[in-house]
Amino acid sequence: MYDLIIVGAGPAGIFTALELLRKSSRPHSILLVEKGKPVEKRHCPKDKTGVCVNCKPTCAITTGFSGAGAFSDGKLSLSYQVGGELPDLIGEDFAQALIDYTDKIYLEFGADPHVEGIYQGAEIKDIRKRAIQAGLQLVDCPIRHLGTEKAQQLYLNIQNHLQDAGVEMLFETECENILLEGSVCKGVRLREKTGARDVYGRQVVIATGRRGADWLEKLCAEHHIAHKPGTVDIGVRVECRNEVMETINKVLYEGKLIGYPAPWRNKVRTFCQNPGGFVAQENYDNDLAVVNGHSFKEKKSDNTNLAILVSHNFTEPFNQPIAYAQKVGELTNMLGAGHILVQRYGDILDGKRTWAKELARANVRPTLKDAVAGDITAAMPYRAMVNIIEFIKMVDQVVPGFASPETLLYSPELKFYSNKVKMDTDLETNIAGLHCLGDSSGWTRGLMMASVMGVLMGRKLLEKHDF
């Protein structure tokens, strides 16, 4: 019997344990269960092989201590306006105060004190003016860039701290299910190498991240955990030369733009901009390959990449937004023979596929070397594709050259956080003793807001459950 069982060692789970240890005056028995490996053993073979080898049973980039976000770009968004809908639940001012508090913890464990995106010169006014003229909203958001390689050391420091404080950690261990007695959660069922094992706890926190969103959605359906279909993001990762993005990289580092292009006026946004970064492949369950972007502190490329995501909100009777996005990804993977597809923007407008020989002589060379040149429009839903094309035209008014014929589009870029678990301001679900946090809960998007939700959970355990 544990005081607390945390499933998922991403930011939400980590900071739940951290805050509980920081604020409590007595010791607690805490079990942290993680499907992947400890942070020091998370290594992607692609660094040596040059191609994705589809690691089994889990992808080192998407699973393991610190979660997927820390091993991608490692950015902390320092504004409540970015990172999901948690501020709608707890209030904007409180959310910002928690961000400021959580940021200090990151600094304690070795985050770079330098903050990007706080430039206040005349160039920012010019960018904002052009964004307004293009019908786009420019979101101000300071960024603390951990860097993919630096984040590994920071989270290793946190992992060691938790272990030294007595937190028990089970790695390469999968949670199969939760254990209920009536409408009360009593523990979890784990799948280990030796078989299944039931573990009991006073409180259970599920914080499985985007990788576990599909699993949590099935759990909600099976155990009648109150939830509703939320938003699912489907899009592409765009890559262009640093020269094109030079000004916005300098004054904003990550320019967050939001628009509602004609004719459907769906929300379309930029996300996860990586100046001098690298496009990367991540593998999810059922061999689903999706694209992401990495940004290192020291290692730089000639290109900048960023995501363009189209938000899809479904209504009755449809209630499987994650499955919908997965089908889009599977169809794209089929066309690319299991690899990420890449296509030039000009070829999309011309109605033709892209050929490898065309990429070899272009100004923009793909940083994802094993991406397959092809036709992403053969798999991307019409509505999403039109939204992306029109949004790129709008961004081109802010960043001239963004809509160059040589600009590269990689697919699929999918964000699995569509299942929104219903909860109150104390982070209580309709199942007593069960709490759902982070990106898998549908309330957060990204490292910082997931960490903030963990901090809040740690405090609520102390306030409401006599920890």
Offer a quick outline of the entry.
The protein is an alpha+beta fold. The chain is built from 13 helices and 21 strands. The chain has helices spanning 11-23, 46-49, 86-90, 92-108, 122-134, 148-164, 213-223, 246-251, 321-335, 345-350, 356-360, 382-398, 447-464, and strands spanning 2-7, 30-33, 75-77, 136-139, 143-145, 168-170, 174-181, 184-192, 195-206, 227-229, 231-241, 256-259, 268-274, 278-284, 288-294, 303-313, 341-344, 372-373, 408-415, 419-421, 434-436.
Q: Biggest β-sheet: count, sense, barrel?
A: 8 strands, mixed
**Oligomeric status of the shown chains?**
single chain
From the spread of the alpha carbons, the general shape counts as: globular
Helix content: 25-40%
Our count of helices gives 13
Question: Could you give the order of strands across the largest sheet?
Answer: 4-12-13-16-11-19-17-18
Q: Find the structural class using helix and strand composition.
A: alpha+beta
Count every beta strand, where a strand is a DSSP E run of 2 or more residues.
21
> End-to-end span in angstroms?
14 Å
Q: How much strand?
A: 25-35%
Radius of gyration: 21 Å
As residue ranges, the low-confidence spans are: none
Mean pLDDT: 94
InterPro entries: FAD-binding_protein (IPR028348), FAD-dep_OxRdtase (IPR006076), FAD-depend_C (IPR049516), FAD/NAD-bd_sf (IPR036188)
Pfam families: DAO, FAD-depend_C
Organism: Candidatus Gemmiger avistercoris
Protein name: FAD-dependent oxidoreductase
